[in-house]
Amino acid sequence: MSHKVLILNGPNLNLLGTRQPEVYGRQTLADIEGACARQAAALGLQADFRQSNVEGELVTWVQEARAGHAAIIVNAAAYTHTSVALMDALLACDLPVIEVHLSNIHRREAFRHHSYVSKAALGMICGLGAHGYELALAAVARLLNTTVEA
Ligand code: CA2
Questions:
Q1: Stated pTM of the model
Q2: S-S: 76 plus which of 10, 42, 57, 88, CB 3.0-4.6 Å?
Q3: Helices 84-92 + 55-68 axis angle, to 10
Q4: Residue 3 annotated as catalytic
Q5: Is 52 in the pocket of ligand 1 (CB under 6 A)?
């Protein structure tokens, strides 16, 4: 049975493709979901792709992931820089966590340079647009295979 990977997207990412294409690209979140589904299948994984504008809903999904998912990929959007609650949930989930951002948060405003999510993440991919999600899935596939073989 293929491993299920929870791919979480935070607030306002549902607006992708409608505004600020110079920062976030032209792809919609549905485009990214489709690309993740294809990449996951090619890697023998299953993508469970979700978006929420509600911090508590993201926290609940992370808590529930422990029961049925093998890893979490998370673009927490603005909650990256504010949410101790999401960080605590990710730290407690006992799953490998990969952080993704479409933009290079370190080339942007100073308030985007700090990430609470990074405290719980094995690694972070930023600045490569939607391709970052596919790279994160490749990293998860490698991590899970390594774990099985070790
Ligand atoms: O670069 C990323 O992926 C971010 O996580 C995106 C967040 C931002 O707060 C982070 O600092 C970096 C913002 C997501 C909002 O996306 C929009 C897309 C189109 C129009 C408006 C917002």
A1: 0.95
A2: 10
A3: 0
A4: no
A5: no
Of all atoms in ligand 1, which is nearest to the CA of residue 75?
Answer: 5
Give the C-alpha separation, 127 to 117, whole Å: 16
The model's pLDDT over 52-99, given as tens digits with 9 standing for 90+, comes to 999 999 999 999 999 999 999 999 999 999 999 999 999 999 999 999
> By alpha-carbon position, which residue is closest to atom 9 of ligand 1?
78
Fold entry, domain 3-144: Rossmann fold (3.40.50)
DSSP-assigned letter for residue 101 = E
Catalytic residue check, 24: yes
Domain ranges of the chain: 3-144
Would you tell me the crossing angle of helices 29-42 and 131-149 to the nearest 10 degrees?
30
User: pLDDT digit string (tens) for 134-147?
Assistant: 999 999 999 998 53
The answer to whether the beta carbons of residues 76 and 105 sit under 8 Å apart is no
Ligand 1 atom closest to the Cα of residue 81 is 11
Please tell me if the CB atom of residue 101 comes closer than 6 angstroms to any atom of ligand 1: yes
